[in-house]
Write a structure and sequence with these properties.
The strands form 2 sheets. Strands 1-4-5 form a 3-stranded antiparallel β-sheet. A two-stranded antiparallel ribbon has the order 2-3. It is elongated and about 45 Å long. It has a domain of 75 residues: Herpes Virus-1, CATH 3.30.40. By secondary structure, it is mostly helical. The N and C termini lie far apart (99 Å). A hairpin with a 4-residue loop joins strand 2 and strand 3. The longest helix has 16 residues. It binds zinc ion (ZN) (2 copies). InterPro entries: RNF11_RING-H2, UEC_component, Znf_RING, Znf_RING/FYVE/PHD. It comes from Echinops telfairi. This is RING finger protein 11.
């Protein structure tokens, strides 16, 4: 008899203690995916905007004398091939579009002459 009562009592307690499954997806956990602060995101957006303002074109060694002097992209060390998408920096150095865009996201200077690209950009805006 006492065993039966004990079992009943345990069962009762077990049922009472069953926790309601509530999942709280904490906002802080999802935010870990993007660890950039708002300030960093703004700076990156501004930098992308500046990069987009740089003139771009395709490599054509026969058309322009200035392009003829630069035969390879110093970022990837590959020779330019006719028709390659390229980006012109204000210092007249040229690079593959993909190479220089990637480079400028990390360092906003020309990889050849170390001239700050944004300073040249700003001064060219003022004179225009
Ligand atoms: Zn390259
Ligand atoms: Zn340069």
């Amino acid at each position: 008899m006492t065993v039966g009562l004990d079992l009943d009592g345990k069962q009762m307690r077990a049922w009472e203690q069953v926790p309601v499954p509530v999942y709280h997806p904490t906002p802080s956990q999802t935010r870990l995916a993007t660890q950039l602060t708002e300030e960093e995101q703004i700076r990156i957006a501004q930098r992308i905007g500046l990069i987009q303002h740089l003139p771009k074109g395709v490599y054509d060694p026969g058309r322009d004398g200035s392009e003829k002097k630069i035969r390879e992209c110093v970022i990837c060390m590959m020779d330019f091939v006719y028709g390659d998408p390229i980006r012109f920096l204000p210092c007249m150095h040229i690079y593959h579009l993909d190479c220089i865009d990637d480079w400028l996201m990390r360092s906003f200077t020309c990889p050849s002459c170390m001239e700050p690209v944004d300073a040249a950009l700003l001064s060219s805006y003022e004179t225009n």
